[in-house]
Structure formats: structure tokens, C-alpha cells
# Entry
Amino acid sequence: MRAVRSRDYRDYSSRNTDMKLVPEARQAHRLWSVQASTVTTLLIVAEFAVQALPLWQGIIPDGAFALAGAITSTAAIGLRLIQQRINDE
# Structure
């Protein structure tokens, strides 16, 4: 039986693997999917803050920010599938 050689990093070292950004990378904050991901991150942080601060525990229902974060996270996936253009304004 023939032994199968596993690939390692040396197999790829001879190729040019420099990562290059797309020309619009500096304007990525204008993309809907990036904005939705940012909102998701803020909602997750808010969920942890509500759990840590007893002042807010009676006002905001448990899991409200987690549910909103799950919704915006799902929306970010859908928005990523839409072709988005960056308009120079």
C-alpha cells in the first residue's frame, strides 16, 4: 500500500501567495453587510453588559439583545449575498 504524503506549508511556499485587498477595501464600512456585522457585535456586547449590570436586569427582558443579535447576524449573511456598490459621495 502506498503511503499518502500530507501537505504542509512547504508545498505552498514556492507560489506567490501575497494577499491583496480589493481597491474598494478602504470604503468597506459603507457596505450593508459590514454595517450589519457591526450592529451584531454591538448587540452582543450590550447583552453581556445587561447581564453584568443589575440595574438593567428588570427593565430589559433576558435574551432581548441576543435575539436581536441573532436576527442581525442572519441579515448580515443575506446582505453579503447581495451585490453592493460603493458610491463615491
